[in-house]
Design goal:
Elements: H1 13-17, E1 21-33, E2 38-49, E3 56-60, E4 65-70, E5 81-82, H2 101-105, E6 115-119, E7 128-129, E8 132-136, E9 142-146, E10 149-150, E11 153-161, E12 168-171, E13 182-185, E14 208-216, H3 219-224, H4 233-240, H5 243-246, E15 251-254, E16 257-263, E17 270-276, E18 288-291, E19 294-297, H6 304-310, E20 317-321, H7 326-333, H8 336-346, E21 355-360, E22 367-370, E23 373-377, H9 390-402, E24 411-412, H10 418-437, H11 439-456, H12 463-466, H13 474-498, H14 504-513, E25 519-520, H15 522-533, H16 538-546, E26 552-560, E27 565-573, H17 590-598, E28 611-619, E29 624-631, E30 635-641, H18 653-661, H19 687-693, H20 700-707, E31 711-716, E32 725-728, H21 732-741, H22 745-757, H23 764-773, H24 779-791, H25 800-813, H26 829-843, H27 854-865, H28 877-893, H29 911-930, H30 937-951, H31 959-965, H32 972-984, H33 991-1003, H34 1007-1025, H35 1054-1065, H36 1067-1078, H37 1082-1092, H38 1099-1112, E33 1118-1124, E34 1134-1136, E35 1148-1152, E36 1156-1159, E37 1201-1206, E38 1209-1214, E39 1233-1235, E40 1242-1248, E41 1258-1259, E42 1265-1266
Parallel strand pairs: 1-14, 20-21, 21-23, 24-25, 26-32
Antiparallel strand pairs: 1-2, 2-11, 3-6, 4-11, 5-6, 7-10, 8-9, 12-13, 13-18, 14-17, 15-18, 16-17, 19-20, 22-23, 26-27, 27-30, 28-29, 28-31, 33-40, 34-35, 35-36, 37-38, 37-39, 41-42
Amino acid sequence: MPGLVEEPAPVLEPATTSATFAVAQQKVSLEIDPVTRRIEGSTDIEIAPLSEDLKSITLHCRQAQITRVRWKPKQVIASDFTYINAYDALDIPFVTTAHQHEQLKRRLPDGEKTTVEIRRPSHVQIVELAGYTTSKTLDGKKKDKLERLFETIHVYIDFVVENIRDGLHFVGWDTDGLRYPHFYTQTTGSAAIASLFPCVDSIDAKHLWEISIKTPRTIGDAFLLHAKNPKSAAHLKLQAMSEADKALDLNVMCSGDLTDEIIDPNDPTKKTSSFRLSAAVAARHIGFAVGPFEEVNLAAFRESDEDDRLGRNAVPVHAFCLPGRTADVKNTCFPLAKAMDHFAVEYTQYPFTSFKLCFVDDLLIDHYDTASLSLCSNSILFGDQIIDPLYETTRELIFALASQWSGIYLTADQPNDSWAIIGIAYYMTDCFLRRIFGNNEYRYQNKVAAQKICDRDTGVPGIFYCGQYIGLDRFYYNFIALKAPVVLFVLDRRLLKLNASHGLARMIAKTMRDDVGGKISTNQFLKLCEKAGHTKLETFFQQWVYGGGCPIFAVSQRFNKKKLVVEMSIDQIQYKSDQSRDEPIVAKDFIREVKEHSNEVFAEVQSCFVGPMTIRIHEADGTPYEHIVEIKEPRMRFEIPYNTKYKRLKRSRRQREKVAAGTIEDPAAEGADDVLLYCLGDILGTDEEKREWRLEEWTPEDQERMNQESYEWIRMDADFEWICKLSINMPGYMFVSQLQQDRDVVAQYETVEYLRTHKAHRYITTFLIRTLMDERYFHGVRTAAAIALRAHSMGNDGGKGFFHLRKAFQEMFCLKGSNMTSPNDFSDRAKYLVQCSIVTAISGIRDPSGRAPFGVRRFLYEVLRYNDNGENDYSDCFYVAALIKGLGEAVASAPLRDTEDLMTVDEGDDYDFLRSCWSEIERYQRRDGWIPSYHNLISVMALHAKFCLDKADCIPKARTEYLYLSQPGNHEDIRISSFGYLFDLGYGLSSPYLTYFFNTYVTERSPHTRARLMSILTKFVGSIAIGDYNNPNKAGEEIHDPDTLVIEQQDVSTNNRKIEIDRKVTVEGALAGLKQDLGGDVAFMAGVWSAVLSPRISIEEFSDLLTLCSKLYDAQSSVMVTVKYPRWMTYGGVEKIKPVSSNEKPKLLLKLKYGSIRTERKPKRWQPYAKPTQEQRPKPILIKRDSSITPKVPQESRPKTVIKIRQGSMVVADNRQTPAPTPSSPAPSVPTVSMSNREGGSIKLKLKFNPKSRPNGISTTNGDAVKSP
């Protein structure tokens, strides 16, 4: 995440390329006024020269105004320095349009524009010292060598920061809003901290820090200073606050340890908090937050024996939150103290003295990690009544703690090495979560992540190269966070095979304990792994770290009775490097595709993945035999020896019935050797249960065929050492044996996924429902079985999937012998997850025409209507949200049919049922308005259901409701959903809606909300680019009845058809279509340009909007400016130009045929020209102020004047019939812009500039700048 890894921003390069000095320590003093958003500060930087030729030092600074620089504390004369605030260049002094995007893009802060160069005065001497220094080699060994050392010198810089745009975010200090006022350092890029004070913002520049922050003592004191005017915003805010809120202390949370907190003796309304960091960290890992925070001691959750064992070595863990969130913090963060102790014991000592979490509003991401302090979003907090976000939120918080070791203390050597830092932190997190949630959860989550990697890793560079693109798009960080932990998990499996005592955990611990210089590279990490495993791993890293893509294996097997071997063949298939470019572009990923195309981001996939694979064959006697084969080629053929000399007979039906009835109690008894072989999924075995559940058993022919097999099943990649897709041509009953007899949760999950994708068969639902009903299965396997049953609800097997799902729900969650749902009881988390999965599975059932059957709609409606959560200790908001979402989508899939064209109407296709569903959804939405659910989740899903019904024309248009709910004052999730539905319903091309959307974006203060609004905008732009914005069937073509004759008329040319295809699969075609469809939209152009010129957006948002403009509009190096007429200017052509006397001061005089004009840019310097007499002035024309009355001037008699501007002169040329210019006075060449004179009003000048020059003004002959008013 930002802050953990080095983002490849060019702003960091200039100060780090020079090796003439290093920073030993930096002291920063800040005085922050949150009401005016102003910072006054100073910094003392202790410089260690590396050469006696040090002429100057270069620091990063991109927002502050430097007032004074000194090399001594009491020096009066300021030192010479060069600094230009790059943000000032973004303020345009004239009116521009979106066509000037290229001019603004050149003004973006880069390396040269975001540094301050301070030249060393001659009286500051560099004193050389003698001594040894200790350095680290690549393998971590210490090496003493003699180097030249110099005495440190101090640089004192005073600065002021006003109109803060980056680096600091203020919440609740405006007159609108009822949130508690606070502010904190905001991550908007790698140079965020350089926006607050000068520093060396490089990941390599680690040093000690001392930070002092001076703030108002209480919230009331902050506003009281600016509340003298009764009409001021501060006074109004102060009047609206209660006395208790005014008295809330503003507590300062900062990286490091609090050393003292002093009340200002001169002003008791202010206080100064000082902090010191005991370990050297980079500038980007400094952060702080100020607000009325309450403290929660998380160390109190330690067990008593842990406290006794750790003693003084126990690290304090504290959390800070806004008033009213203490209970949520305790429920969310209680595992952190245990995780702290686990990391300190398993890896190395905590690098700092304490750890703090501070929960704030509007954080752009879930958590932002700095040294000993993690800023977390309030949105991830949940109370003790919420179950669903338990695993995900806990994982993110534990990752924030693990980042203190891998991310803050241990950093990446280069941006490409970021995968190692992120991967190690997530690997540490997952290993700890295994202790809390169990090994099954650990393996299940890795298997699900591996499937996601196989789906996404098409056309994506390797995780090593993704590190340099983290700043390009958030997708690359998320992809690294997904793939890197799984790669390390696979690496750990291989290391443990080679050396059982040296796994990846021990290697990580050794890396941190050996102190490898505070940073690690991929090459260094490779050598450490090879040393731990005593083997070469270049091939592994080349495939999974440097390379992209995942292999696809197609395995075939056959038993050779003559040789008593299993003949196997493994064919490997790879995605080609350009294969993903032929896939359809997704609208929400369009902007990322454009960035990748512009930056030439392509993946190189190797032709063949190689390495060991474990094959486990469960032979006839029930014994598993493991065989390791080496994959070396895309097509492998090999033979595996068979070990069993006889065939074990299967249990008879009578034996299975005895086991199910419990008559065989002792597994060691005679005749019970195979009891454990059928320990899972052997429920619902009686004849009565089979008839009731409509179960199918193996036929005698199937039993005979199974008995003839020489082995039970074959398990490929039994040790989970590959991230791949794998298919094997085993018979279905072998997969069933694996599902029922293999104890590995990964093997069970793979079998369920195979049954889900298998063609319909009458046996499949039987085994899936038994898996779903058997509580001994892991909950992830049971939920996967419920989703698999949905795939077999409308097949050739009679559609028993829906029957089994409904029957399972009635059996587990309804009153006995009734279809009435029982009161909710979510005390069993696994059972609750199964309940939600059944509802989700049923809501997705569709017939071949895409309609949800009436039984599905009726089931969802009744469960939602009779849902009872009165006796439940936990909230049912997620469960109700799933019901509302499923009901809305199901009803929308089956809109009311036209009874005039049909002889009959299906049950449920009447208006009464639709009205009942709509009323039930609105009832829950109204209840959520009075008693809000977690994040207003029920209201959000109710809006989604209404959107589906609205899109299907089942209910009246709800755009008025969407507009109302999108306004400020509603919950952020509701606002974002409303905006998204307005665009999805087709209102995005309407000028009023576009204006409203961009006005909201420009005035929105929350960066998190703006980022979500930008996601909606990019999805809208992407859908227009690929031509799907007005297409109701975005998911694919319509599915027609096979018995229906469909006649399609080709009404477009082949060329147009090719263009439509290209815009869906190629970036070039999509950009051409986007420019054609949206480039001429005036409202969109005005809206996006108003967002560009907004002073509230960050530099990253500014850059993204300019990128969008560059793809939509042609760049122009000219701009239209408006100039007021002189009060007595006349119309006419040029008669002559009076030359300027060389004795007089320069002045510009234009004499027209019917009058004269004078131009005075600086009256104090230019002598005014004598006004013409009254006879020479034209008579005024009186025109009534009526738009319908215009002066009647013949077209041919309307004079047009062209002002041609060039450097050093201004000439007015006549467009009427005038003689050609003489050779002595040739007409100036372009740049020119025509200006049409009209009766009254203003004229417009179109100025064209040299693209390499800044359009700050036009120089005249005397050097004065001519600027537009």
